[in-house]
Amino acid sequence: MSEKAWLSRELKNGKVMCEACSQACVLNEGEYGICGVRKVENGELRLLVYGLASAVNVDPVEKKPMFHFLPKSRAFSLGTVGCNFSCKFCQNHDISQYPKEHNHRIVGQELSPERIVELAIENRCDSIAYTYNEPIVFFEYTYDTAKIAHEKGLKNIYVTSGYETHKAIDLLASYIDGMNIDIKSFSDEFYKEICGARLKPVLDAVTYAHEKGIWIEITTLLIPGKNDSDEEIRGIARFIAHLDPSIPWHLSAFHPTYKMLDVHRTPESTLLRAYRIGQQEGLKYLYVGNVDNEDYESTYCPSCKKRVIDRSGNIGQFVTNELDENGVCPYCSYELEGVWK
Q1: Which of 66, 123, 182, 248 ranks highest by number of CB atoms within 10 Å?
Q2: For the whole model, what pTM was predicted?
């Protein structure tokens, strides 16, 4: 399906600029954006994946990962094909890079915004997550869906690499309640060579989305020898702490995939080293993924240090959630930061 990509601007020279993401593609007639799913046809930018979902699942919201957002609830998760990044370590490269690797072919099942919201309600979900590939590349599809979802009492989550323009965030802020944003590295060189992007727009998007009142959680995939030095880890931790020390930081283990099959899996010691650096920099909420130790996936009250959300087993399986509906600690009455209802 194709729909006008209205987050765009016609230029005087007959070209069209896409205003969804910071790649800021300027396109001639017939040209595709870097994402592979936005194309100029008959003088206007079209979104080629509008209403076409490549992946749909009902997930625990913790899988996004969102640990301070409606704990133990379900998120109706969907994505399309296409991405504005070209990460060599992408775990979903089969859909994110599909158009670029298949001569601009578009695939997906027809799923309208209205039907997505109906399915979310039928499956007892409290939120819709735009995930699996980069949601900003199918902005208009997410926007229309999120607006209907809000009207029906559902919340919305962006799982993103953080390349949204300020204009996009201004429009999303009314309907997107939470974002998990990757800070993949604190090195511009890493972003250029491994992701096909730049660092500064990501940091700007994180800052601006936070200023707009969207609940933010950050994820960093630590890749051995690429972004796991003390200096780089500390740089990310300090950036988060300076912005807001209550932003949760998820530290995740890399496993060999796509174009980085020659890089070893992240050792647990690296994740725990990053965890300690985050503590040293004053972050309140740190989480380690892919480690078989519930101590590092549970939530602790920053005030009294008691464990108040106990996570064990598979992500989303809870032992206890002792916070009340307002996120208040039962032991010391500290109000933990997050979206609790």
Answers
A1: 66
A2: 0.96
